[in-house]
Specification:
Blueprint lengths: L2 E4 L18 H11 L3 E6 L7 H5 L17 E5 L2 E11 L2 E9 L2 H8 L1
Antiparallel strand pairs: 1-2, 2-3, 3-4, 4-5
Length: 113
């Protein structure tokens, strides 16, 4: 349903450790580089299987029945990996998702690798 490339905001990236900086600064600099990488966020309402015949018969006003019952949480994926579940909302006449369940931060990092 919704498919939007998100991008983390942040300050300028220094590209690495600074002269005379303490331990761990090089790792922080590397992480800063990754924080500005854009990721594709996809929200899935559900899915359906159609034959080519059924697909060709679709027209304006056709309804495709999805496999997920109404009221069930929507699945949220980042680059194809599940990271959260939520409910559909409307914000300024656009669809959005209010997150109700989020995978732990360490599990999200593992899934993105």
């Amino acid at each position: 349903m919704a498919d939007k490339a998100g991008q983390a905001s942040g300050g300028p990236v220094d590209g690495g450790a600074q002269a005379g900086a303490g331990p761990g600064t090089e790792t922080a600099g590397t992480l800063d580089l990754l924080l500005d990488v854009p990721l594709r966020i996809t929200v899935e309402l559900g899915s359906a299987r159609l034959t080519i015949r059924e697909l060709l018969q679709l027209g304006h006003g056709s309804v495709i029945e999805l496999d997920k019952p109404g009221g069930e949480p929507l699945d949220v994926f980042v680059n194809g990996k599940p990271i959260a579940r939520g409910e559909a909302v409307i914000v300024n006449e656009k669809f959005g998702v209010r997150l109700t369940e989020v995978v732990s931060q360490s599990a999200r990092v593992e899934r993105l690798a």
